[in-house]
Amino acid sequence: MSNLVRMGNFFPRVFNDFWSDDAFSKLMNENLPAANISESGDDFSVDLSVPGFGKNDICLETEKNILKISGKVESEKEEKGTDTKVLRREFSQSSFSRNFVLPDSIDVENISAKQEDGILKIRLPKKNLVLTNKAKKIEIN
Predict the structure, then answer these.
(1) pLDDT in tens, 5-38
(2) Domain boundaries, the chain
């Protein structure tokens, strides 16, 4: 009887661990670069870990309220013997695509990005809400 109790406790734990949000997202997003998102008073920042990708390998674009980030890099390694026969050749390809929904408060026209030390740093400035939230007297005609 104690074996049944152990098995009864074992299987739900295994399935709970497997189907947890964290495990599922790891399974589905294995090839996605890690992202850090932060907010300050003036902007949002998105930092993506993209080691091995050059700035020409990455495409950054907006469509409606979606920020689309994709990258693709291909390389070919070749080892040759002294008689120029190809002894070994390795092809390598890496790619990713991530999308982020942008809030309405983002000034899409002034988004900027730079890459340094394998990190893609994207600055998403907020719209100047001071002008739109300024009190205004409305005259009655």
Answers:
(1) 333 444 444 444 444 445 444 445 557 899 999 9
(2) 1-30, 32-128
- Whether residue 93 contacts residue 73, with contact meaning beta carbons closer than 8 Å, is answered with yes
Helices (H) and strands (E) in the chain, counts: 3, 7
Choose between 64 and 30: higher pLDDT: 64
Which regions of 50-110 does DSSP assign to beta strands (E)?
58-63, 66-80, 86-101
Domain 32-128 = CATH 2.70.150.10: no
The token pair that represents 63 in the structure block: 């469509």
C-alpha span between 111 and 98 (Å, rounded): 16
Residue 64 Rama label (left phi>0; alpha psi -120 to 50; beta): left
